[in-house]
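Bug: token stream looks shifted between consecutive jobs. Job 1:
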Amino acid sequence: MKEEKQRVFADRVADCVAIILIIAAIAIPNLLRARISANESSAVASLRTLNTAQISYDSAFPTVGFATPSAHSVEPVARRREARTRATSTRRWHPAPRADIRSS
């Protein structure tokens, strides 16, 4: 009788451990995805803050221009496009014609 109670108790403990492991297997990937998403959102917010600071600096000192870029600074989109256009002016990208649009 005593051995049977011990076996039943051990079975219940094993069931509880199995349930906890199943819940952990479901929850851990979701927690990791949430953490990655939070890190990405934080990075985007930081880039926006840097962009706003650069624009504020440019409007406060229009003759000076932007601050000297460091390895971690962000340029506004318009200036990046301008630099990219100058660098690739001879080799412009043209989209392929769409198949569903008929040329007349």
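Job 2, same session, no restart:
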Amino acid sequence: MKKQYPRLNGWKEKQKMEKTFDKTLRGFSFWEFKDKYGMKCSIQKSSLATEDAIWFGVDDTQPRIMIPGQGWIPYEIPKEVLISSRMHLTQDQVREMLPILEHFAKTGDLPEKEEKQ
């Protein structure tokens, strides 16, 4: 029997997230997965030489524009434009965020203040 997790709108079965591991051509480890809406995401070891860091987030923002009567359609960004969609987090920053993420994983809510360690 699958474990059930409480939600505000009732009970929902836990669904396992598919993840794949690989390495870049330069040998940096990364994991790929999809978010709730099917957007391709990744977490990758950074090549930053001064401290340990990761890249984390959506790989392609898939920009859309709302056209009345048509809905959201793909919006082509000029090749000269760079849109950064992944966070570049240091190991210390990840440590700072872990209590917030762990609280959410346990409760489904964000803590209203920093929890003491």
